[in-house]
Amino acid sequence: MSVPAPTLDTVVDPNRLAALAAYGILDTAPEKGFDDIVLLARNICETPVALVSLVAGDRQWFKARLGFPECGTDLNASVCAHALIEPDLLVIPDLSRDPRTRANPLVTGGPCIRFYAGAPLRTPDGKALGSLCVIDVAPRPSGLTPSQAESLRALAGQVMALMELRRALVEQRHLLGQSEELIRTQAALSGAKGDLGVMLDALVTGAMEAVPHAEDAVIAMWDGEELIYRAT
């Protein structure tokens, strides 16, 4: 793996990876909000490529992309991994001359990228998850203009705002589903008319519905060491 050790340490940091996983965004379908942001970034910075890149422990994956054929790459082809440790924009005028990237397979081979500018995507508590980046196949000795750099930072902030909103909506739907299941369980208990077996079966079913990742649920009633009822 060609990623330098300090950067690799950041990439595989368990707290950072847990923060990324909490958004539940990896490998999800394209969404217009993110697609609009890469369109604006590409147009403002006048580059052929713009990406919302999220760096996982062993790969980078693009939530939105323009001008790039793949939806992700191996970590050894990730320039965005280097942006994780930058306090501000990472701008590399010529990727073929920078020691961090000159051996990158996307630089040495197709599509032969040469210019990179990326704004880190940071959680509210400062963990870097990836970058909003623009890429060119020609070097740019002057990098970005001050206006382009300012816009790229602002658009990166909008990416994180969308990710926070997306996570909040997922959590809200989950809570709503739990509330609906509680209502159904209460109705089933009311209709049991005191039948203990029916009531316990309703509780087991309700628990399974409220925790969708659960594989099993059991209610057991004991009298001393004797099992007197079991609902599964």
Automatic annotation (TrEMBL):
Keyword tRNA processing recorded: no
Domain GAF: 29-173
InterPro entries: GAF, GAF-like_dom_sf
GO molecular function, one term: kinase activity
Entry keywords, A to Z: Kinase, Transferase
Name of the protein this chain belongs to: Signal transduction histidine kinase
Taxonomic lineage from the root: Bacteria, Pseudomonadati, Pseudomonadota, Alphaproteobacteria, Hyphomicrobiales
